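#onboarding

Welcome to the new folks! Below is a worked example of what a typical request in this channel looks like: someone posts a single protein sequence, and someone else replies with the predicted structure as tokens. Don't worry about understanding the tokens yet, we'll cover that in week two.

Example request:
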Amino acid sequence: MHGLILWTFEFFVRLTYGNQVWTGVLSKLDLSLNAVEPLFHYDDQVGLSILQQLAVDLNRDRQSLLEDFGTFLVTDTRVERVRRLLRFGGVDYTDFLHSLEDLKGRSLLAVPDLHLPNIQVDERQPHRFEITCENIPKGAPYVLLGVLRALADDFGSLVFLEVTAETADNVVITADLLECQHAEGREFLWATGGVS
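Example response:
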């Protein structure tokens, strides 16, 4: 697991639940780890152990925690770069969904050794999409689910999202786009210098 992912997850936990929760999780696991280094690589089991202990401490299920993390990646202004990377996928939610297959390549342009899961998008019917996300690292599709929900709000779209199939290797998320322009979306500037 790339340290940047675990480091951002640490940031999410500290901001959402407090520093004590994060340090408490690490002390219970005895990982000899005080903070995550974003440029290091960690065994996937380190991230899974942290997630499992966090779920126990907060009395939450792991999937909902990961979904909240995905929402955080889009909505929190302190990680605005993630939102920008995602929003450059298109001018509306449909374009964004179609661009998900390119996300892995776009992320490698930003961080050359960051390997995101493979994503396949199929439009089974007009406005009904099946998004298959590789389950590596384990739980990644639930982060994507949180991202998809948050981006729907960001674009002002009304979308019904649900996990419809899950195996050890892949998770399938169905997205029913009910209204493309349901509400006013969040402002997005194509250039950070103020050009909209």
